[in-house]
Design a protein that fits this description.
Layout (H helix, E strand, L loop, with lengths): L3 H9 L3 H20 L10 E4 L13 H4 L11 H11 L5 E4 L11 H9 L4 E6 L6 H10 L3 E5 L5 H7 L5 H17 L6 E8 L7 H11 L3 E6 L21 E3 L5 E3 L9 H4 E4 L4 E3 L12 E2 L5 H5 L2 H12 L19
């Protein structure tokens, strides 16, 4: 396992225009931190786009799994996707095909990946791996996808399904085997296959085992991710016993608090954003129900939205008091997400 090739692959996609844009964004972010006033002098370096809100599983801390969205649900369509990418591609370095839902449920998902890959953008997605049939695995490799994040939150069925409710660990392992075997068969170095292990109390004892399993299967990398808990103040059966795997700390009064001082700045508001399946632009992945819609790509260009007054007002409110913005209260930006 290793990520040397993956790093080099990402660097190889850099163009002068993308590098200059990244420098401008980094510079304007730090100017804004110092001045306390939002200054934006570049386009996003990274975006997440949502193939669908649909999901086959019912994970307990996920709006897709809980079927609890108040916003419309549906599938990203090709015209909206292509129009968005055409606007962003010259300066965009990283494209994540994920927000909520299971990407492979969108029939046009891999066509969209190929479209973005053909424009030299580094592409990634996150999947529960239940739909990695032989055909889908082969098409995934042929699409040019650069990174495939496979969620595997247990090394035995009982622990896996305690969070991935309705899921099958056997299907995850079978799908992983197909991708790894077809990469060899097709002599492809991509996608970089990554096991993402969401550490919760029922599975934290299996952390060593997931590294062993990944090695046996030929997976390129393992990352451990801390879990977001919605109602964390009174504790949860999902909060790990080992403090290093938790986003939250126990306070003297027995309650729980997030391990984040919530300082009045946020890198994400300058270098990235999220586009929902129906073209709404929202600040980040913590706005799962799209409460803070900053623009609509069916009505305005991305440039009008990104540099527009509504987005600038949001950045200004964050620089003034991040703790007063609802989606920021359970946010890990500025603290540890990857264990």
């Amino acid at each position: 396992m290793g990520n040397g090739w993956d790093i080099w692959n990402g660097i190889s996609k850099a163009t002068p225009q993308r590098v200059i844009n990244a420098v401008r964004i980094w510079s304007s972010y730090h100017q804004s931190k110092i001045s306390g006033k939002p200054n934006i002098n570049g386009w996003p370096v990274s975006i997440s786009i949502e193939p669908t809100t649909s999901c086959n599983l019912r994970c307990p801390e996920c709006p897709s799994g809980l079927r609890s969205f108040t916003r419309p649900t549906g599938m990203l369509q090709q015209p909206l996707f292509k129009n968005s990418i055409d606007q962003l591609a010259p300066k965009l370095s990283y494209l994540i095909f994920y927000f909520q839902g299971e990407p492979y449920l969108n029939p046009g998902f891999l066509d969209m990946v190929q479209y973005a890959s053909n424009k030299g953008i580094y592409t990634a997605t996150s999947t529960n791996a239940h739909y990695l049939t032989h055909e889908n695995a082969k098409r995934t490799i042929e699409s040019g996808l650069d990174r495939l994040i496979i969620s595997i939150d247990g090394t035995a069925q009982d622990t896996y399904q305690s969070y991935r409710v309705g899921g099958s660990l056997e299907k995850v392992i079978e799908g992983t085997k197909r991708i790894v075997a077809l990469k060899k068969q097709l002599k492809s170095k991509t996608p970089h296959v990554l096991f993402q292990f969401l550490v919760v109390k029922p599975n934290e004892h299996q952390v060593p085992e997931v590294y062993k399993l990944a090695k046996e299967l030929g997976v390129d990398e393992v990352v451990l991710k801390t879990a977001q808990i919605y109602d964390y103040e009174n504790g949860s059966d999902l909060i790990p016993v080992q403090d290093k795997y938790s986003r939250y700390r126990k306070t003297p009064d027995g309650k729980y608090a997030i391990k984040n001082s919530l300082d009045n700045h946020c890198w994400k508001m300058w270098h990235s954003c999220v586009i929902t399946w129906d073209g709404k632009v929202v600040p980040c992945c913590f706005d799962k129900d799209a409460h803070f819609v900053l623009g609509d790509l069916s009505q305005n260009t991305f440039e009008e939205i990104w540099f527009g007054e509504k987005y600038q007002r949001f950045r200004a409110s964050l620089l003034k008091s991040r703790k007063e913005i609802e989606i920021c209260k359970n946010c890990t930006e500025g603290t540890k997400v990857w264990a």
